[in-house]
Amino acid sequence: MKTRLGVHPDVVKLGLVSLLTDASSEMIFSVFAIFFTTIAGASAALLGLVEGLADFAASSLDYVAGWLSDYSGRRKAFALAGYAFSTAAKIIPLVANSVAALGIFRVVERLGKSVRGAPRDAWLAAIAAKEKRGYSFGVHKALDKAGAVLGPLAAYGLLRWLGETAGSYRMLFRVAFVPAALSVVVLGLIAERPGVPYRRESMLAAWKTLSPGFKRYLVAAGIFSLAYFSFGFLLLRANQAGFAAREIVLLYALFNVSFVIAAPLVGKLGDRVGRKHVVALSYLVYMVMSLGFAFAAAKWQIILLFALYGVFFSIDDAQSKAFIADVEPERRATAMGVYNFATGALYLPASLVAGALWAMHPSLVFLLAAGLALAAAGAFLWLRPGRETA
């Protein structure tokens, strides 16, 4: 089989789909927190609620979608439905820019991610060679985040050209719709890679058959999820430190550049030394980053912290999925769906608490996150969820 970038060609094709989708979504998200609070007039507390609901929506259907994918053996149909749903949701800010409409858009758009995530990741795990699984997930996520670099840069260019007005943001929403629509077309051209159907298993039975290693990992991941407040608070922290809206867009692009560079390298590292080590490392990196945001006083410190966050996210977003594929070799879509649903359900209270603490003092948000990340690292090392695959 001819490879591209050292991986199965369908890994690259799925990465291109994610690149187009992320270019669209992140073009909007890079300015959403600022637009929502300064142009639309929402409060930071309401932002916390909307972002928490969006994070929950992004995982609310994962278990159902993952179980249905394993039940039917179908991957492409669910992935295509999820991407199409997110694209359709982007019509909302084209026709309405009220606080309510923007909040609805943010939540509804994330529901599409919830439908596509687990089936697509199971699809990736099936086409990736075991000895290159971490690298394959890293390449896919690097392409994914390449779109998240292009999107904020496009947003920066538009805002610099048109100015930071309500009309400029509306134009940005129109431009962002185009790559989203293209992603659906590209995905439709990729050949299906079906899984083995498990038609006789209910959702409860599917949960009971998941491996003990996966369930132990879920405990540590759940603790960590309580520290995982919305990224929007990092953007607000940058604004508080003196960065203008268009400069914050560049910070967001920097975070994604850091992710793109780190993801394949971290994937290869996980393939070589064991993914359990890099997963544990991600919790400690997040703790250091949170402490940095709590005490950062200069702009250069904020810049370094955004780059560090990109390194962390390259581990958390790619290697956690590769690790799940290691500890749950059979019902991968179900396991990834359970993981996304469980952690996403905890993102809502995490963002609500962050919104409340922000009103008291922004540093409290990051101090709490650092403490919870340390607790998650301790739980991961104690429970040793990867020992069966060592």
Summarize the structure.
This protein has helices at about 10-40, 45-60, 60-70, 75-90, 90-95, 100-125, 135-160, 165-190, 205-210, 210-225, 230-240, 245-275, 275-295, 300-325, 330-360, 360-385.
Descriptors:
390 residues; mainly alpha; Growth Hormone, Chain: A; globular
Task: Tell me what the structure shows.
With 390 residues, the protein is mainly alpha-helical. The protein has one domain: Up-down Bundle (Growth Hormone, Chain: A). Helix content is 82%, strand content 0%. The protein contains 16 helices and no strands. The protein has helices at 9-39, 44-60, 62-72, 76-89, 92-95, 99-127, 133-162, 166-188, 203-209, 212-225, 232-240, 245-273, 275-295, 299-327, 332-360, 362-383. Helix 12 runs parallel beside helix 14 and helix 13 (275-295) runs antiparallel to helix 14. The longest helix has 31 residues, at 9-39. The protein is globular and about 55 Å long. The two termini are 28 Å apart. The mean pLDDT is 85.
